[in-house]
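Lab manual, section 2.4: Encoding a predicted structure.

Procedure: take the sequence of the chain (170 residues), apply the prediction step described in section 2.3, and record the output as structure tokens. A sample record is shown.
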Amino acid sequence: MEETVNKNAETIRTYIPLDEIEENGKLVREIGYKSYIAAITLIGFGILIFLANGTMFKVFGVLFVLSAVAYILFVKDTILVRLYDDGIVFIDPDRNEGFRIDYNEVAEWNLKNGAVNVTRNDGILARADTPIAYRANAILRRYVPDQETRVLREDQRIDFKDLINKNKQQ
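Recorded output:
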């Protein structure tokens, strides 16, 4: 979890204890760090290896399945982002603190490089690194569709064909 400066804005530390963050909206989804898709894929891969002929294949297959099951059962998932119907909360699990960004404060958001990135209107970039950042996509598209980086870039893009045609007409 990091809060960094985007453009020329000053860094403002807005972390407060999680129990002091006011939540008026309905919780839509929590996003943590643990990826169940990776664990299930590892189980499937382990079963395929186990079905191959040979003792070593069976041993490795069992090890893959057991390691994936241990991951699912014993590794604690750490919540990094809470998405509400009226805002988003970024959490620093080490300090048990976080900060809230209302959707009307969002200037831009994207899901790049395995992270949820939200830039506030004042230029502060909030970022949560998680391999399951894609889970935020549908919710952010529902509540702040016009602030997605892709949409903003499409609005700013110049249609070069029209520009070329205008130059030819002159």
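Check your result against the sample. The chain has a mean pLDDT of 83.
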